[in-house]
Amino acid sequence: MERTIGIVGGGPAGLALADDMSRAGWAVTLLEAAPELGGLARSFTFGDIRIERYYHFLCSGDTGYFRKLHELELDHSLCWRPTKMGFFYHGRMYPFSSVADLLRFDGISLLGRLRYGLLALRCSLSEDWRALDAVPAESWLIRMLGEEAYRATWYPLVITKMPTRSCWSCSWSFPTPMKSI
Ligand SMILES: Cc1cc2nc3c(=O)[nH]c(=O)nc-3n(C[C@H](O)[C@H](O)[C@H](O)COP(=O)(O)OP(=O)(O)OC[C@H]3O[C@@H](n4cnc5c(N)ncnc54)[C@H](O)[C@@H]3O)c2cc1C
């Protein structure tokens, strides 16, 4: 007898699960409330191109995503582009893509910059985000960077992106933006 499963939500998680389950031989019914699939990672048509609904980035450590792309034979459609980051601070745009940029960022003390660089180095050398999954990110970042560097760099991002910041896990801040330097 065919095994059946219903999956609620056609965002990335529901779609990936639906694909896994159907490959494993299940008959899948995917229930999606929105008119289009994709969840928060949806895109929309703008003129003659598709644009993501919210900005999204991939990191080289997003191995699950690459695995799924490969299974879907879509890996050829992924192309990596060099990107640059800027940091708008006190009315001025600072380049923020390299160690040299960090050292030149005079919005924080030299000690703050050095601590930031050391933490970025530590994050880029380690893949073990699991150990930090249950650690609240804000207090960890303040401990690692110092209050001054945290307030200048992370805090503006946190108050706009993380409304429930007490639930914000280190495992998010660890592999992503800290590796951008
Ligand atoms: C501004 C922003 C930037 C982001 N940037 C990144 C990034 O750079 N890199 C990254 O990896 N991630 C990023 N994310 C996070 C990423 O979009 C989410 O982690 C991902 O979309 C979660 O997938 P999901 O399937 O768990 O949930 P969702 O994407 O939320 O999908 C859930 C789906 O379930 C549907 N649904 C909910 N309830 C029901 C119901 N009762 N019946 C039927 N359907 C239902 C919803 O309509 C939705 O389509 C970003 C998110 C935002 C908001």
What is the overall shape?
elongated
The poorly predicted ranges are none
Q: Strands of the largest sheet, in order across it?
A: 1-2
Order of helices and strands: EHEEEHEEHHHHH
Find the count of extended strands (DSSP E, 2+ residues). Answer: 6
Biggest sheet layout:
2 strands, parallel
Bound molecules: flavin-adenine dinucleotide
The share of residues in extended strands comes to 5-15%
Main attributes of the structure:
181 residues; alpha+beta; two-stranded parallel ribbon; two-stranded antiparallel ribbon; 6 strands; elongated; binds flavin-adenine dinucleotide
Secondary structure blueprint with pairings:
Elements: E1 4-8, H1 12-23, E2 27-31, E3 43-46, E4 49-52, H2 63-71, E5 86-89, E6 92-95, H3 99-104, H4 110-125, H5 137-145, H6 147-161, H7 170-173
Parallel strand pairs: 1-2
Antiparallel strand pairs: 3-4, 5-6
Helix pairs in contact: 5-6
Can you put this structure into words, describing what you see?
- This protein has helices at 12-23, 63-71, 99-104, 110-125, 137-145, 147-161, 170-173, and strands at 4-8, 27-31, 43-46, 49-52, 86-89, 92-95.
- With 181 residues, it is of the alpha+beta class.
- β1 (4-8), α1 (12-23) and β2 (27-31) form a beta-alpha-beta unit.
- α5 (137-145) packs antiparallel against α6.
- Flavin-adenine dinucleotide is lined by residues 8-14, 31-34, 39-41, 54-57.
